Structure formats: C-alpha cells, structure tokens
Amino acid sequence: MRLTILGGGGFRVPLVYRALLADHEEGRVTDVVLHDVDAGRLDAIARVLAEQAAGVPDAPEVRVTTDLDEALRGTDFVFSAIRVGGLEGRAADERVALAEGVLGQETVGAGGIAYGLRTVPVALDIARRVARLAPEAWVINFTNPAGLVTEAMSRHLGDRVIGICDSPVGLARRVARLLGVEPGRAWADYAGLNHLGWLRGLWVDGRDELPRLLADRDLLESFEEGKLFGADWLQSLGAIPNEYLHYYYFNRDAVAAYQRAERTRGAFLRDQQARFYQALSGPDAPAFRTWDATRADREATYMAASREAAGAGERAEEDLESGGYEQVALALMRAVARDERTTLILNVRNRTTLSVLDEDAVVEVPCVVDASGAHPVSVDPLPGHAAGLVCAVKAVEREVLTAVEDRSRAAAVKAFALHPLVDSVTVAHRLTTAYQQAHPALGYLT
Predict the structure, then answer these.
(1) CA-based nearest residue to 16, from 59, 49, 58
(2) Strand locations in 100-186, DSSP E?
(3) Is the pLDDT reported for residue 319 higher than 70?
(4) Going by C-beta distance under 8 Å and a sequence separation of 6 or more, which residues neighbour residue 312?
(5) Smallest Cα–Cα separation from 114: which of 140, 88, 153?
(6) 239 and 208 Cβ atoms separated by less than 8 Å
(7) CA distance 18 to 34
(8) 94 and 102 Cβ atoms separated by less than 8 Å
(9) Mean pLDDT value across the chain
C-alpha cells in the first residue's frame, strides 16, 4: 500500500514514519513517497527516516520527489501537510496582526484568515489533481487551518478527504488519565469546529465521569487545560474547552503575552528549524539525534505565550509524550484500509450532526470509521454560547472560501471584519492591505 506525504520535507514527518515502523499488521504501508517543493528539506528528512529505519526489517521504502503529479499518481492514501509560505509566512502573519493589536495565531483570528487565504488555492489545486490522478485515494488533511482547508478540498473530493487534529484526542486523554480511566474505554462527547470545540462528557460503561472532575477544584487545576482556563471558568462552562479557546476567552491576556514575548511562536519555529535544516546540510551530522533534540524543544515550548498569560508554568512531562496527530492519522488509515471499525474525533462534513450548521460545513466531532470512510455520530446540541461562536467562525471560513473562489478583496475584508477577535472594520481593511503587502501570493485578491 502506498502513502504519499505532501509537505514531505516537513519537520513532523518522522513522527508519521515512526508510527509506520511500529505497524507490523498485514495490509500495512510498504511504500512512502515524500513530496515537497524544497529539495533540500526533502533530503534532510529522508536522512532522518533512513536512520529511523536502520535495523528494522521490512521498513517501508521511502522515495522523494518534487514532482506533485508523480507523487500522487496511483497512490492509495495522501497525507497533506503543506505550509504555504513556510514559517516565514507564519511569522509575518503574527507580526502583521500584532501591529494592529489583534491576535496573529496561525489558525485563530487574523493570522488564521491570512494563512487560509494563501493556503486554500493550493489545497484546491491538490484536490483537483488527486481527483484526476488517484480518484480512489483517501486524503487525510493535516494542513492548517484544518477545518477550513478540509472543507475547501471536500468541494472536489467529497467525503474522501478527512481532516485530523490531535488537540481533542490529547484533551480526552489527559482528562481520562486524571480520572483513572483507560482512554480506550472512554467515549469523548466532544463537538465544535477545528480548534474551537468542547469536551462535554467522558462516558465509561454508561456513566459520565466528567462531573467528577469538574467538582474537584484541585484536580481540575492540575492539568494543562485547568491551568489555562482556571477552575472557576471551567465549572461555569460545565465543560472543558479545547486549549485554543484560550485565545477567545482570554483574548486581551493572550495578545498582551504575544506582544511581550521576545519572539512570536512562528518566529521561534522559523529560527529553530532553520538551524535544524542547516545542521543536516552537512553529510556527517547525526540526523535522527539532531531531529529528536529539536522536537523535544519544540514540544516543551508549545503554546508558551498562552501558558505565560495564564500563569500556567511549564508543560507537564506527561503532556510531552508522543501519540499525537500521527497516531490519529494512522488509526484512521488502518480503519479505512483494513475495515477495522473504530471511533475517532475528526473533521468531516456535518450532515445533520450540529443542527446550527448546514450539511456541507466541516465540523470536528466523534466519527465511526470503517472501509467506507468516516461517519459523524449524533451529538447533543451545543449550548447557546458555543453555538453562537461556532456559527460566527464558520461564517468567517465561508467568506475566506468566497474570497478565494471569486478572487475578491471585499470578501477577504469581510472575513477579517466578521471574526470575533477583530474589533473593527477599519482594522479589517488595514489587515487585508498589510497581508497583501507581506504575501505576494495574495495578489489574486482584487
């Protein structure tokens, strides 16, 4: 079985390959094709993978190419993990937004809109090519903003594109661990959009265990989300929000923390990864050891500005463990390829799952997965405050899609202006102008 990874020179690809190496079941991936527009990055990651595979019998064969059509033709699965504009683009997204006093995080607020405006055209081209060159392939989308990009690609691929994110899985796992529950036995009642969802229950043997956590202030404030949001707010909500909702609920604090930081997250990663790829440009550098040390530093500093704003301190060691998005992706791929029925929280078309949204809106909800794909399950309606936020952000995503489809600057301005974290139409106009100046790829907006 062949797997094509778009963005194959990306830093997190060795996580996926490590999971593939651990898979010894029949019907596993035997052929991995890495595609990237940067041949130097491809070479560096291929070296890391070669060291990972050393001594592993029947390790999947790895090939690299900068030819997109060659990478896609006849493949069985596509992992799409592209970053249009690179980390320099992300750093610019953050910088432009902060100059206007608004959040520039890569998936939330103005930064997420800018990233979407330059990513969706490329994602649509990929979707068209997959439909032409590998019509039976399944596309698993890692590319952020994951919900928006998945919805764009679904217009050409239908249900054969599925978006993934490890945030809901990580949240449910942390809550289960706190409650002494084996994660595999628990049903996570989670619903929303990508990076905008809430864990409303954790069901084990017909009993919801989440109220037990919400009633215990000390236990509640002992883990990542409890430290970010505080016991009072979580008890008021009666749910545990996805960590990215910190940007909404504590927006002023988050923006102030970003402005105080020596560097934004994007600038930190840009500089860190530049050192990594430069180190691997020499033939004698220990590829895997260099990658692993860089990975550990990356994980330890995740959402550092938000933790600083909340006074949450350093990340707990147990929250640095592996088993994130690559495990979700492999579980999804195995379920489809082998018809191994499983349940995962995924980004899929809504159908009738969330009544406040139309059937084609991509949502992030529990799904039953089998050989025919991912099927969203029924969930309880969102409470009013959550439904309002979900509808507002989905309206923004739709304006981004309209801006791309119609090449419309007016729609782009509308997307910025309608976002809950952008407080002025005047600011929306200035953001659009500044992002067009920062990103030549946005020259299509007229």
Answers:
(1) 49
(2) 138-141, 161-163
(3) no
(4) 224, 227, 228, 306
(5) 88
(6) no
(7) 15
(8) no
(9) 93
Q: What is the pLDDT of residue 309?
A: 63
Distances (CA, A) of 151 to 72, 123, 302, 312: 20, 10, 26, 34
CA dihedral sign, ordered 22, 27, 168, 199? negative
Residue with tokens 């409470």: 383
- How many CB atoms within 10 Å of residue 23? 13
**What's the whole-model pTM score?**
0.94
Q: How far is CA 25 from CA 79, 134, 323, 340, in A?
A: 20, 24, 18, 12
Spatial separation of the C-alpha atoms in residues 107 and 99, rounded to whole Å:
18
Report the distance separating Cα 374 and Cα 341, nearest Å: 10
Q: How far is residue 116's CA from residue 415's CA, in Å, rounded to a whole number?
A: 11
Question: Where does the pLDDT of residue 101 fall: very low under 50, low under 70, confident under 90, or very high at 90 and above?
Answer: very high
Beta strands in 115-186 (DSSP E): 138-141, 161-163
In which element (H, E) is residue 386 found?
helix 384-406
